[in-house]
Amino acid sequence: MSRILITLGILLIIIGLAWPWIAKLGLGRLPGDIVIERENFRFYFPITTMILVSLVVTVVLWLFRK
């Protein structure tokens, strides 16, 4: 269990450091992401981005299991 937590922590650090480059890819601004902007209020729900990230993670984990 500790090995998994350490690995997840390292992955989160890597993603955090790479975030400026990831943001340039357009993730979070895909068609299907819900953005509601009003005066002094902004609601953001990235449905399409979550589905895409989920598919990528599923494929990567499936490949590591084989």
Explain what this protein looks like in three dimensions.
Pfam families: DUF2905 (PF11146). Keywords: Membrane, Transmembrane, Transmembrane helix. The protein has one domain (2-65). Helices cover 64% and strands 15% of the residues. It is built from two helices and two strands; from the N terminus they run αββα. The chain has helices at residues 2-24, 47-65; strands spanning 34-38, 41-45. The protein has a two-stranded antiparallel ribbon with strand order 1-2. The longest helix has 23 residues, at 2-24. It is extended. The two termini are 21 Å apart.
Overall strand count: 2
Give the total of domains: 1
Taken as a percent bin, the fraction of beta residues is 15-25%
Strand order of the largest sheet: 1-2
User: Percentage of helical residues?
Assistant: 55-70%
Number of helices: 2
Could you list the spans in which at least 5 consecutive residues all have pLDDT below 50?
Answer: none
Q: Over the alpha carbons, how many angstroms does the gyration radius reach? A: 15 Å
Mean pLDDT: 87
Dominant shape: extended
Which structural category fits the helices and strands? alpha+beta
Return the string of H and E elements: HEEH
Described by strand count, sense and barrel closure, the largest sheet is:
2 strands, antiparallel
State the end-to-end distance: 21 Å
